[in-house]
Write a structure and sequence with these properties.
Its EC number is 2.5.1.18. It comes from Strongyloides venezuelensis. Keywords: Transferase. The chain has two domains: 3-76 and 194-200, Glutaredoxin, CATH 3.40.30; 82-190, Glutathione S-transferase Yfyf (Class Pi), Chain A, domain 2 (Up-down Bundle). The chain has nine helices and four strands; from the N terminus they run E-H-E-H-E-E-H-H-H-H-H-H-H. It has helices spanning 16-25, 39-42, 64-74, 82-109, 117-143, 155-168, 172-177, 179-189, 192-200, and strands at residues 3-8, 30-34, 53-56, 59-62. A four-stranded mixed sheet has the order 2-1-3-4, covered by helices on one side. Helix 1 (16-25) runs parallel beside helix 3 and helix 6 crosses helix 8 (179-189).
């Protein structure tokens, strides 16, 4: 299969978990980075006017979770049983909820949106951290293997490590308050191919 991943340049966002899966599996793909100036002409060519888009032998697949689940099956990163897959889906949805609380802060920080980033951090991100991180910590403890499900490393870990890592690698106080989350992110980022990729990728905050 020939893979082409299209996402914005200048930000990791929802394109990065797919990249991490490709890198971990050692599967080649075209990383098609687009800039904001070119987006208006590209937008109408995408299935839903959004990115990421993954083209598989020329067929475009849109929506990030559809892309991740497809790649999980193709790259042997899907949990084994139907129940494990449903649990992974539920955890991913929960992490996505958290990312929705943190998203605007990082978009403002990167200059893609106007707003009071300090107020976003204080009033939205930190309360979300204290709501979501204890629950995610319990999932890690219950799995007992260093990852989020008892099935072991799966696609949800690449998504979660990226989204949780945005915060724990940005703020030392959060990392110190939730050491299990920090250790988890470091564990995923220390996988050999992922470690090499993270070391060489652009240092964007999100």
């Amino acid at each position: 299969m020939v893979y082409k991943l299209t996402y914005f340049g200048g930000v990791r966002g929802y394109g990065e978990p797919a990249r991490l899966m490709f890198k971990h599996a050692g599967v080649a793909f075209e990383d098609n980075l687009i800039d904001m100036n070119g987006w208006p002409s590209i937008k109408p060519t995408t299935p839903f006017g959004q990115v990421p888009v993954l083209e598989v032998d020329g067929t475009p697949i849109a929506q990030s979770f559809a892309i991740y689940r497809f790649l999980a099956k193709k790259l042997n990163l899907a949990p084994g049983s139907d129940v494990d897959q449903a649990l992974a889906d539920s955890i991913a949805e929960y992490v996505k909820e958290f990312d929705g609380k943190a998203h605007d802060y990082f978009v403002i920080l990167l200059g893609f949106m106007q707003g009071d980033k300090d107020a976003e951090w204080k009033n939205k991100v930190l309360p979300a951290v204290d709501t979501y991180f204890p629950v995610i910590t319990n999932w890690l403890k219950n799995a007992g293997n260093g990852y989020l499900t008892k099935a072991g490393l799966s696609w949800v870990d690449f998504f979660a490590a990226e989204k949780l890592g945005n915060v724990v690698n940005y703020c030392n106080k959060v990392a110190e308050k939730y050491p299990e989350i920090k250790s988890y992110v470091d564990r995923v980022y220390s996988l050999p191919a992922i470690k090499d990729h993270v070391a060489s990728r652009a240092k964007y905050a999100y």
